[in-house]
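Can anyone check this?
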Amino acid sequence: MNTSRSRRYAWAWSAVLSLAVILASVGAACGGGDNGTASNGSGNPGGGAGSGGAFEGGLPDGSGGTGVLPVDGSAGQTLTIDPQDPVLTVTGTPLSVSFKAKLSDGTTPQANWVLDDVKIGAIDATGKFTAKGMVAGSAQLTATVGNLTATTSVKVIVKIKENQGQLDAAAQAALRTGGTSDPSFAWLYPYDGTIFPKGLRAPVVQLNGASVDAIRVHVAFGDFDYEGFWGASTPPRVELPQTVWDAITQSSTAQGDVVVQVTKLQGGAASGPVQESWKIAQGSLKGIVYYNTYVSASTKTGAVMRIRPGNDAEVMLDGCTVCHAVSAKGNVLVAGVNWANGNPVTSGSWNLAADGTASPRYSVGDGRPFSFGALTPDGDRMVTNAVPATGSPIRGLDGDYPTRLLDTATGQELAAPSLTSAVSYALTPVFSPDGTKLAFNRYDKTPGHTLAILDVDLTQSPPLFSNLRDLVESADRVLAWPTFTPDGKAVLYHEGDGFDTSGWGGVPRNADVRLVDTSTGAVKPLERLNGYNGSAFYLPYGEAEEAHLDYEPSILPVPVGGYYWVVFTSRRAYGNTIAPGGTVAGGDNKWGGVVNGGEVPSPRKKIWIAALDLDHAGSGDPSHPAFYLPGQELEAGNMRAFAALEPCKAQGQSCESGAECCDGFCRQTSVDDAGVPVLECVPPPAGCSNEDEACTTAADCCDFSSGFLCINGRCAMPTPH
């Protein structure tokens, strides 16, 4: 449970009780004395239950509990809650139980009720607790009457069964029993060990084989149990209901495994189950993912698209808008427009607004200046992606164009002698999220084979670039497209046989994503992100089909749920959907080709995301298996994703976390009619900072004692281990 979030809930619930009620309660409860001992509820295990399930008294271990805390006073009064420690078993329908605060003299005064974790349900002013229909877990309920308090636990167990395939009892029984192993019946997607954030579309479960007559999916962990039955599927595939996926992610814990089993029925015989385990990070992805698309069904050409996690892709900039980059704060985008004759025809910058619109900021009749530029975090300045005089190794650019520092609002070149004297041709440059470092391919030294870094001080005039040093060098591999972890202590990059994801007409280009420590230069290959578990390749179609197809990484500027989130382009297969023999045309060809003189991209080129441990320096492989970013157009070729925050919100606007607010703080200001907390961006308050809120050091964070960190100016929970 997030203790800082619980503090916000408790504050709001305390505020909603009127002063008159408090004074009346004090009159009934003044006094105190020795602590009393409560009985186990009302003595009626089923009392207070609503429709849709049942609850029983006592703690989960059957020991019962007192529910009495020490109180002040002299009249010997004590307070208890009835019933004590109820356990509610819900089957999909909201279930309620009414609590009463009882004084030791037998009276039942009105109390102030506080639930410390509202994800499992809500408590109203009368003491009626209503469990959400499909969210499992436990919470502590506190009653306050005057200066007396009492507590009880509330536990919700979820047991859901769905029969979407309308299977008869015999088929259900056969699937539940399972059968012999079938080597052809295996997982294709998701991958075992994947870590998912909350707030996404439900993953599509995809399995090997031509067809099945029926499928059973069983998801079990902790107090959550889901069983679903589906009918015939060709190929074997199940789209988990979004309500079920949301319940899974909301019911999970940071360290617990979500165990998923799938059994098939074919020709009257059951096979399986085949099993995987996933983890759910305790947070939702922030911001927006921006990427280029080609042959989009929406635009019929290229475009810059955006996906807010959990939603479908939207067109951001229509037409052949390419070679883009986005500032870490999500307020400025730069790109080239309408490629022709070796370069985009024009290039420029756009302002990105909180309402999702983009308005022109500056445009120039030269495609080189703003293509693939490195934006400062606020987007005001940009280090250009250089084009060497000997010819650009990046497809789509041509003509000598050295490194420069530009103003993105005017296009004016800004004086930066410490930059231009340090490097003439910096390719694929990027600023760190805090603007204190610049990483790039140092083309001056070795064409394509050196990744370098500069320290940056943007507060000086002119800006100071210093301490040039090489991070990684390779004799024969291209080192490009760097991206900083939010703590600035590591750079992820593309290590391949070229800068691009393919050559003209589908010429193969291979690459993997690597990590280098910015202090030590130690390189980590990120095996699990790239499809390896040690020396074993785990992607289902094998190394010849899926290995070394991971390119152009980008990292969300803030951690979420104890992880950094790496967004990258990949030509790996996507289950049985975009794959050899898959249901999307072109899935057999991962490289694309040329039709009628025009290049046609492969639908295999897609955006994927993988979790990366925050404590990457202390981990042999801090990466985890990737997942497909849902919401992309299946038929299009998608690439070059940028993960950025949304433009920040002003005080008084609704929010979900401090990462969305310009002042860095999101707090509960009220509750709605249903008792749900209302969060808004607020001025910096007194006291400590909650998760995602502004900080200078880790000691500023409310959960500092629990290992919370201050990363890129935001409080962040540590990686669960």
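Reply from J.R.: I decoded it. The CA atoms of residues 341 and 396 lie 9 Å apart.
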